[in-house]
Amino acid sequence: MDLLQKRESEETLFTSVSTGDNPAPGVGARKKKYSKICGTNYPLSIAFIVVNEFCERFSYYGMKAVLTLYFLYFLHWDENTSTSIYHAFSSLCYFTPILGAFMADSWLGKYKTIIYLSIVYVVGHVVKSVGAIPTFGNHIVHVVLSMTGLTLIALGTGGIKPCVAAFGGDQFEEEHTQERSKFFSFFYLSINAGSLISTFITPVLRGDVECFGGDCYALAFGVPAALMVIALVVFIAGNEMYKKTPPEGNVLLDVWKCIWFALTNRIKNRAQHIPKREHWLDWASEKYSHHLITDVKMVTRVLFLFIPLPMFWALFDQQGSRWTVQATKMNADFGGYVLQPDQMQFLNPLLILVFIPVFDFGLYPLVNLCKLNFTPIKKMATGMILAAIAFAAAALVELKIEENAMPTPVPNESYIQVMNLAGSSIEVAIQDYDLYQEPIETFQDPEGYAKLILNSNQQGLHFEIRYQGSLFTFNHTVQEMTVNSLIVYEAEGSLTSQLVKDMEQKPTEGMSAVRFINTLGQNVNITLGNGEFVSVNKSYGVSSYTVLARGRYDNLKCTLGPEELFLSLGLLDFGASYTVVIMNTSAQALQTWKTEDISANNVHMAWQIPQYLLISAGEVMFSVTGLAFSYSQSPVSMKSVLQAGWLLTVAIGNAIVLIVAQAAPLEQWVEFVLFAVLLFVVFIIFSIMGYFYTSVDPEDLIANEKKRKISSSKDMIDLVSTKAEL
């Protein structure tokens, strides 16, 4: 789903084939002949690698698409905890590639690293799927299994991330550069196809398939687990066809040792009268070669530019957390097709497929025709601005959503509404409160909840109701932090009332809720569309709320004593709760009056499309341009170091979201504005850094690399000649 993974793959391959991850001289004479596809220069082994990548990406993004809702509605964590764990997992997925690269380059080689970590990956998926079975253990067991599974998945997906694409590139002969380039077209297609299909399908498996009496998270996690098993089996099936290169040392480790030695050597000699050196890395010259020090100098210049970048990823990766939570509070009816809230994430890979050619062949050439110097750093800065605007748009949508949100009582607060089921209008007064000024007509929809400030955690309130010229008084006890309805009706020739508690928050996941008040003299039994059975006592009995999937509920079967009647509720909409008053019977049907206690979600999910458009356009400008630019600014031997640095910015970005969610709980729209402002500040800092950055011509780097290879070859020849003379 994220373009980062797609671009990393190409650069990882470039790193491996450029830095000597191919067999050493002399090995070529012993290598066997590998199978080709239909007489072409494409090795058959790449077919297994491409299928493996499709299944792995389907597995990862499919699982991740439903993860936030799993935390919210299966583990019953609050929004901040769910967001924090989601981003902690994402952060870990981008720290572990360093471990995978170390294992591949220094110990196991790419093939064995992919195999072993894929097994860990599969085990993680299986554990995660088992943890999503409601009947398997208690809540603590579910949490332990979920966290164990996610840790193993992060180790697996992150560990193989730097290996798979490079391993695919290793399958080609050095002279087949065109074929290798086309291989990456298929490789990217497999990534996009896997992420696009999975982010659309797994939410359907979760929300549209019912198992264990609710959303089927076990299936939504189980299918990605099965795809990962297929990925592993397919990859192993190609074993005999693969060209495998032995591990040849870790460049990242060499760079770290060089930097560490330079720092410690400089500190050690600070007190001594040693002449200053031109660059702080020159203090490593006592131990490391001039070539390595020069390369490290170049790469540290680029890594310095990476410092502001995590803030972009902090915003970008919230598509799967905060934006998904936002979608659960919106109207998801797209002309008869109901989109699951976690399905909206599929827009990102879809838009990326559209935007890349549009930008490469339309926007950028148009800018060049206008003779505007749209440098890579300016493109990246523009991507930051687009992401910031996307979050500003998300904040506006959130504000609109909150307009019809339920009031949230705090200690010593409560809310109340009045429902008049009597024969004519009433006037209501509450002692010490000045709330209801106008008469309330019979069966008038309540205008909203009125706030009550209580003197303690519960308080007896004195209600005075004037009805048909008479004054009636009632005393009811109201508890703090509750939402209530005062139901007024006639019973046995006199006015009476009862205070009932209402639903205190909107139904989650876009569901709806309904309760019944039975004004008849007999009990009513109602069979709802989902097979649930509701019994409502006679003489103004009030049922509890039943949560239902959004939809039309017509011609429901009811029994009233020996009679079988029908009841129609009409549309029960997203996020609404209803009170349905059963009034009388007529022509084999129950006559009802329906009112909304909680308003339906009135902001359509389509309003999220602008923010997805902006963040996806920002991703293309930021991620594609950033990787291409940074890689062009470093020597060939340092490509893997830059990849590690880039992945680290993603990990840190997710850690920032975790910190904000836990350390400073804010209203959601305020948090969106905060992130937008922070990224705008980072945009200014990055623009200043970019202004003073001096770009290196990639052709000069290539020329210097050729000179270095020629110089190394001459040194080797001289050494061989000297030994021969001796």
UniProtKB/TrEMBL annotation:
Q: Which UniProt keywords apply?
A: Cell membrane, Cytoplasmic vesicle, Glycoprotein, Immunity, Innate immunity, Membrane, Peptide transport, Phosphoprotein, Protein transport, Symport, Transmembrane, Transmembrane helix, Transport
From what superkingdom does this record's organism come? Answer: Eukaryota
Biological processes, Gene Ontology terms: dipeptide import across plasma membrane; innate immune response; protein transport
What membrane topology was assigned to this protein in its record? Multi-pass membrane protein
| Main subcellular location of this protein, as a coarse class | membrane
A molecular-function term among this protein's GO annotations: dipeptide transmembrane transporter activity
Recorded hits in SUPFAM superfamilies, A to Z, give: MFS general substrate transporter (SSF103473)
Q: Where are the transmembrane segments?
A: 58-77, 83-102, 114-134, 140-164, 185-205, 217-237, 298-316, 346-367, 379-397, 612-632, 644-666, 672-693
The family classification in the record reads: Belongs to the major facilitator superfamily. Proton-dependent oligopeptide transporter (POT/PTR) (TC 2.A.17) family.
Function text: Proton-coupled amino-acid transporter that transports oligopeptides of 2 to 4 amino acids with a preference for dipeptides. Transports neutral and anionic dipeptides with a proton to peptide stoichiometry of 2:1 or 3:1. In kidney, involved in the absorption of circulating di- and tripeptides from the glomerular filtrate. Can also transport beta-lactam antibiotics, such as the aminocephalosporin cefadroxil, and other antiviral and anticancer drugs. Transports the dipeptide-like aminopeptidase inhibitor bestatin. Also able to transport carnosine.
Quaternary structure (record): Interacts (via extracellular domain region) with trypsin.
Report the protein name in the record: Solute carrier family 15 member 2
- Organism ancestry: Eukaryota, Metazoa, Chordata, Craniata, Vertebrata
